[in-house]
Amino acid sequence: MTPSAPESSSKPTNAQILAASAGWVAVVLNVIPGLGAGYLYQRRWKPYWITSVLATTWFLAGAVLGQNAAPDFEIRNQWVGLLGLIALAGVTAAEAGLAVKRVRDAN
Residue ranges per domain, the chain? Predict the structure, then answer.
């Protein structure tokens, strides 16, 4: 008996998965639902968890700082919270798109 050859198909690397992903999908998923959903699409867990921790911290900081706030400042605090989450979505979207570009340029 001759030994059989190992299968030629192996598990793809993280760089191969990232290079095969559509950059625009990751960007849109990080902007529209926000909170790092594009990282889930790219199967990039570390940036996803960092984004989740930052968003949760932002929510908690807003809740703590907004306690017993005067009604005049409540609307302003809500705008600050919303703008912070929009900024987080913008930064993560840009990073997700640039990560795809960086991996594709390296190949």
Answer: 14-106
